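Thread title: Can someone regenerate the structure for this chain?

I was given the following input by a collaborator and told the matching structure tokens would be attached. They weren't. Posting the sequence so someone can regenerate them.
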Amino acid sequence: MSERFDVIIVGGGIFGCSVAWSLARRGVGRVLVLERAEVGSQSTSRAASVLTCVAGHPAKSAIFQETWDVMPVIEEELGEPLGVHEVGSLHVARSEVNKSSLDAQVALAAEVGEVVEEWSPERARERVRWLDVGEGDRSLFLPRAGYVDSYLFATAYARAARARGVELRTGVEVHELCFEEGRVTGVMSSAGELRADWVVNCAGPWAGVLSAQVGCHLPMAPVRSQYWITEEREEFDPEQPVIFLPDVPAYTRGEVGGLLFGLRGGASPARDPRALPADLGALEFSEDPEGWETLSAAGEGFSSFCPLLETVGLAHYVSGPSTYTPDGDFILGACEGVDGYLVATGCCGSGIAASGGVGRALSELILDGESGLDLARFSPDRFGDIDAFSQEWLDRCAATRAAKSVC
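Best answer:
Regenerated them for you:
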């Protein structure tokens, strides 16, 4: 006899745990999360974990804003802080093109109700001691932004969900979706057959492999993201703003006395999700495996803003696959012609910031049939009939990552 649940969630990363908590919070009975490793241990734990409220367009920004709304709720339920660093974000533009692009940030912030401040070069240099802002540079500061520890955030969702009755099973691998007469009815796993009214695919970079089993090729690919963490220096304040430098392009934030920075230079390798190892710790990017080519290509531009880069030591290098789409938008919702099945993936490097909105959206789709968030731009079917495993498709998604200039 197979076990039966109201909802089975495949994947115990931050999306899966957020969906589970959101469902339990709204009173869904039997919710099961299946994770073949440990909760939050795969792509979630490798995230730079930047939190923002203004990015892309109003629909995307609303998803980010929801995360800020749920964080204090999680803290209240657990009776402990999440360790959120609400330090704001500083966007510094040097070229005329990027100075003009900040106008779009100002307009979007106004549209979604977020505060924006114009900072003088003097104020920016005073606030961030290592940052070399020229007199001709333009700086925008958004107060509601910051960062958090991604693993702790994911496990906080998980603990809050478990306290509300959600069952989390680790060490259980999902092999296939049970599909009958156009409906997903459960999963076949290493623990046997498990049935449910709904199955939610939150399997991160592996999500496309499962979806393809029911004829739904997800419009994304796992693409390498990478960042570095410097040694400790007194100039690096952990409470400095998150900084975006679109001219490099780069982003930075504080990290235990050092500086975490990501550079988007050169090519971004993509992987066929079918070839990913079960544990991302075993994944190797043979193209520039330690990131030196990227650092060499983009380091000079970053040094023009951060002269300390020339002398500071590098303590850590972190890389792993983020799921990118050609348009930089998430994949949220139902696949056409497949009932009882929802997908939440395509984080495009912003999964931690989006987690609260993703949880709300998917729980509303299950319980209400629609979401109060605008999900039209995030449809899994928006690119039509594609081969998500073809080299052409992998290259399209990789190009999105390589061209990305802000969070």
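The chain has two domains: 3-79+149-221+326-403, 89-143+231-320.
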